[in-house]
Specification:
By secondary structure, the protein is of the alpha/beta class. It contains 16 helices and 17 strands. The chain has a nine-stranded mixed beta sheet, sandwiched between helices. A hairpin with a 2-residue loop joins strand 16 and strand 17. The structure holds iron/sulfur cluster.
């Protein structure tokens, strides 16, 4: 560890104790989509025109951080729609990464793909570049649900996308699904899970629809008087999901995430949950190192312009206090099956979690929401269903 202040043009980033060239995760945001999904509030634009300039900006931004990051154990191309990039464009990004950093030989290298855009030929080219994990945004196998969500693909294309990934030889395939959509019943959701299980993907993420009122779908919910599932129904969706997937042998390792085996747990996302260092590049991307978090501007053209004149694209940064880090540790840890390592927590924050929160933890144990096991405080299934409120202990 070395004490250091670093500055990119206009923003000072000053971690208390910056780790010298830690092994980290690398996230690259690709903010381009052909059309905007009705519920989307991510940083993405409905145009591909700026892709070449954006890739140049990414290559330049990669150079900024050479002093602080050396080696990546995970690389994640997320979006937006990374699968809109041509293989040659993805290759350029990887050339720029490898020019400046080491990607570990056993690195997990993920690309997010949209079900409507991919073919086996395209995916074979991605594998040749080094992508070894594909995450496909399926969301549903029901056309009515896909229509409400405003997705560009239909159920038939969802099936073709998974088939193409298998044909291309991906041995670590993840799919994303969404539940709690207006008009969807538990029965329709169970059908979607059943269809997903027919492919036995290595990883399945099941998210409850979260609505931003400024999105078209948020406005539609308001104007039509539609409701997101009440707590009881949301818990029923959650339990049905966990029952079906665990019944097929999947590990429910985080509130929304299931892996077919331990080795398929997302190593990249696990870094976020454990406060491990990660570098995020591209518009809106977040980074974390030694208690310092910083994030880039979220306007794509602005990001490109700033980098073109060697100006820092960072929008803001914050140094988390020990108290903030401790609360995040609780919040993130209690969303995972692994839970919180009691000894590690004490070493890090100088607080014995069990005696400090004795009364609350005893009540949670009595209500079967958490258990103490093997030196960890872990959420039970019922605890995971209400994980956000557990973190308030
Ligand atoms: S594909 Fe993802 S990023 Fe693009 S519009 Fe849809 S939800 Fe948003």
């Amino acid at each position: 560890m070395i004490g250091i202040t670093f500055r990119f043009a206009n923003i000072e980033v000053k971690p208390k104790n910056i780790m010298s060239n830690p092994t980290a995760g690398l996230y690259i945001h690709i903010p381009f989509c052909l059309s905007k999904c009705a519920y989307c509030s991510f940083c993405s634009i409905e145009s591909v025109r700026l892709i070449p300039q954006y890739i140049k900006a990414l290559a330049r931004e990669l150079e900024f951080y050479r002093r602080y990051f050396g080696e990546f154990a995970t690389v994640y191309l997320g979006g937006g729609t990374p699968s809109l990039l041509k293989p040659g464009e993805i290759d350029l990004i990887f050339q720029a990464i490898r020019k400046n950093y080491i990607i570990k030989a056993d690195a997990e290298i993920t690309l997010e793909a949209n079900a409507g855009d991919i073919s086996a030929e395209y995916l074979k080219e991605l594998r040749a570049i080094g992508i070894n994990r594909l995450n496909v945004g399926i969301q549903s196998f029901n056309d009515k649900v896909l229509k409400i969500l405003g997705r560009r693909h239909d159920a038939r294309q969802a099936v073709s996308a998974i088939t193409a990934a298998k044909q291309a030889g991906f041995k670590n395939l993840g799919i994303d699904l969404i539940y709690g959509v207006y008009g969807q019943s538990i029965k329709l959701w169970e059908d979607t899970i059943k269809q997903a299980l027919a492919f036995m993907p290595e990883h399945i993420s099941c998210y409850q629809l979260s609505l931003n009122e400024k999105t078209p779908l948020g406005r539609k919910y308001q104007s039509e008087g539609w409701r997101i599932p009440a707590e009881n129904l949301a818990i029923e969706y959650f339990n049905v999901t966990a029952d079906r997937l665990e019944g097929e042998g999947y590990l429910h390792y985080e509130v929304s995430n299931f892996a077919r085996r331990e080795k398929f747990i997302s190593r990249h996302n696990t870094r976020y949950w454990r406060h491990e260092p990660y570098l995020g590049l591209g518009a809106s991307a977040h980074s974390y190192l030694s208690g310092r978090r910083w994030w880039n501007k979220n306007v794509v053209a602005r990001y490109i312009k700033d980098i073109a004149v060697d100006k820092n694209p960072v929008a803001a940064s914050e140094q988390l206090t020990d108290d903030q880090l401790r609360l995040e540790e609780l919040f993130l840890g209690l969303r995972t099956k692994r839970g919180i390592n009691i000894k590690y927590y004490k070493r890090l924050y100088g607080v014995d979690l069990i005696s400090d929160k004795k009364a609350v933890i005893e009540a949670l144990i009595k209500n079967k929401l958490v258990i103490k096991q093997g030196g960890f405080l872990r959420p039970t299934r019922a605890g995971m269903a209400v994980a956000d409120s557990l973190a308030l202990i």
